[in-house]
Amino acid sequence: MKLKNIIFAILLLTIPYSLATSHSFAQQVSLSISPPLLEVFIKPGKSIMVAYSLENSGDPTIIEAEVVSFEPKDNLGQISLKSTLEGPVRFYLDNADLQLNQSFFLKTGEKQQLLLRIRVPDGAPEGDYYYSLLAKTVPPPTLEGVASSRAKATIASNILITVTESGIVEVKPKIAIFEILSRFKLNLFGKVVKIFDSFDKVPLMLIVENKGNNLIKPEGKISLRGNFGETSTHEIIPKNILAQSQRLIEARLPSPAGEANGGQATPSASINDGNSSLIFNGFFVGLYNLSTNITFGENSPTIFASSSFFAFPFKLLFGFIIVVTLTIYVIKKFSRNDD
């Protein structure tokens, strides 16, 4: 009994000490930056200054600001950050007490203005250059024997810079894909016809390629026309397509007047999965034509594309045939039994 009492007393003495030396600190990080996107047209040899506002809504933290280059990652508008700054454009902070790649402290609820100077040297090649202003949290040094679970966060504001002496940009668009996505296809006289059941959803993919050296922003519409004259028109959502890249183009939700054959055309709930730009819902019967015309501002080329599909209530017809067949079978069976 005495040995057990001694062991119990030792445990009581050591447990509080171990608890006291294993504190863990969890940090809440919540940063916002404005403006979130900057588009700049600038001549070689010129510079501009942009005032950014960085706000900390979380716990007090240490911040570091830097500028890095980025490039398009896929056709969904995602980007890939580079580890260094590329291109001729130079960046500085005009703040008296701040520099890029230098850490500073930001209290809870505090705002910090970052005066970013953007300079394009003389002789810089014309074209587009893409950068991100990053605000990154920097973990503070930890005390010996103290476990730290400091959260790390990075917030970015993208900077799209077009260097041009004349103010004229290169617009070279191309519709890479304008296709109705269907599991069933029929080849008739050398033409592929997309087949749908009348109750099926009809997904459409529109991908525009930018073959020029400057970003472009598409404007236009997607139209659906049925064989009975019904129409549905949907405006394209203008989004930047960076130089030498492709992007999946989405369309706006239709107004109540923009209904096709009693159904409504709506973007897919998973539109950013890279499979569709617009999904048409409704009861469709017959041949339908889809078309798009896209422009890129004043005095820019207009590009067109079209596609079509055929819809019929195959499932309803198949179910009707089954019901009729079973009905005839039952009637014949009962007729034999009566005989």
In percent terms, what proportion of residues is strand? over 45%
C-alpha termini separation: 97 Å
- Average pLDDT confidence is 83
How many DSSP E strands?
A: 24
Give an account of the 3D structure.
- This protein has helices at about 1-20, 315-339, and strands spanning about 25, 30-35, 35-40, 45-55, 60-70, 80, 90-95, 105, 110-120, 125-135, 145-150, 155-165, 175-180, 185-190, 190-195, 200-210, 220-225, 230-235, 245-250, 260, 265, 280, 285-295, 305-310.
- With about 350 residues, it is mostly beta strands.
- It folds into two domains: about 25-165, Immunoglobulins (Immunoglobulin-like); about 175-320, Immunoglobulins (Immunoglobulin-like, Sandwich).
List the helices and strands and how they pair.
Blueprint lengths: L1 H19 L3 E3 L4 E4 L2 E6 L4 E10 L4 E12 L6 E3 L8 E4 L9 E4 L4 E9 L7 E11 L9 E3 L4 E10 L9 E8 L3 E5 L2 E7 L4 E9 L8 E8 L4 E5 L9 E4 L10 E2 L2 E4 L11 E3 L5 E10 L7 E10 L1 H25 L1
Parallel strand pairs: 1-11, 3-12, 15-24
Antiparallel strand pairs: 2-4, 4-9, 5-6, 5-8, 5-10, 7-9, 10-12, 13-16, 14-15, 16-19, 16-22, 17-18, 17-23, 20-21, 21-22, 23-24
Summarize the structure.
By secondary structure, this protein is mostly beta strands.
Identify the notable features of this structure and list them briefly.
Immunoglobulin-like, mainly beta, 24 strands, signal, 6-stranded mixed β-sheet, 339 residues, 2 helices
